[in-house]
Hints:
alpha+beta
Amino acid sequence: MGDHFEKGQHALxxxxxxxEMELFGYRTQGCRKTLCxxxxxxxxxxxxxxxxxxxxWHVWANCIPCSLQEADVVLLRTTVMxxxxxxxx
Length: 89
């Protein structure tokens, strides 16, 4: 969600390569899962559909950020590297 991470919550995999990815650690919270279950019931199943289409939202709604060592859910985000095209004509 935000870009403020403590040490150990965020890591970079394959740094500088084409397939570079960011890793974020999250730990499931029981009270958040319960609230999402209640939201699923009261929304008549719309909330699980939204979470199906946006898996990161499902993680953000059910989990709290933590260190990668404590995480039971790891969110991967690919980074977009800008490619400079210096074609001469």
